[in-house]
Amino acid sequence: NTKITQSPRYLILGRANKSLECEQHLGHNAMYWYKQSAEKPPELMFLYNLKQLIRNETVPSRFIPECPDSSKLLLHISAVDPEDSAVYFCASSPGGTNTGQLYFGEGSKLTVL
Amino acid sequence: AQSVTQPDARVTVSEGASLQLRCKYSYFGTPYLFWYVQYPRQGLQLLLKYYPGDPVVQGVNGFEAEFSKSNSSFHLRKASVHWSDWAVYFCAVSMSGGYKVVFGSGTRLLVSP
Predict the structure, then answer these.
(1) Phi-psi sector, B6: left (phi>0), alpha (psi -120 to 50), beta
(2) pLDDT tens readout for residues A70-85
């Protein structure tokens, strides 16, 4: 799937700061960050619609999303914790009446030492 | 609140045999329902979707699902399983006009020769 690109694909961190990047080439209005821990379903972290943050689940404050334009999404992580080890997926959807049909990137796997 | 239950964490099927993966939903109103598949080290991909209408929906790769309002179910079926179907399958629900997608816990499909 080259329509949603994520970088980096893999990263290993101590207690450091890092940013994940995502770009979608689908012209979608809504973009999401999901966290998937091992053997679990994806959990919604943040949701943007037309660059506006409209849903913000109970996520630790060390995670800060940013949406510089409607096709790009960033996730800034500061002072990571071992419980943050997971795969972080970016997703997008057309929004509006097509709610629920998500398109996922390939994920960024974060390993916290 | 909307929720999805996948009662089978793991299902093993012989190649060529038929398949049914179970999904029960809890939702007040008419839901939008989805099945997603996740292959190893990849993001989720949409298999099929149900919007209010024909209760049987066709998806990719020979998959279909049937919506039952009386049973609050949306089971996934395939007539003949192929080894390449080895993956984790997630049932999901969203509500009309909303943006939040709720995923079930997933069912890991193992295909035996």
Answers:
(1) beta
(2) 899 999 998 888 889 9
The answer to whether A25 contacts chain B (CB < 8 Å) is no
Cα torsion B1, B8, B65, A3: sign? positive
Q: How far apart (Å, rounded) are the C-alpha atoms in residues A60 and A69?
A: 24
Tokens of B113: 């020769």
Of A1, A95, A100, the CB nearest to B34: A100
A37-57 confidence digits (pLDDT tens) = 998 999 999 989 888 887 777
Q: With a CB-CB cutoff of 8 Å, which residues 66-85 of chain A face chain B?
A: none
Give the C-alpha separation, B57 to B53, whole Å: 9
| Buried/exposed A26-49: b ≥16 CB within 10 Å, e otherwise | eebbbbbbbbbeeeebbebbbbbb
Q: Which residues pair with B20 in a beta bridge?
A: B77
Q: How far apart are CA B43 and CA A104, in angstroms?
A: 6
Instruction: Tell me the β-bridge partners of B75.
Output: B66
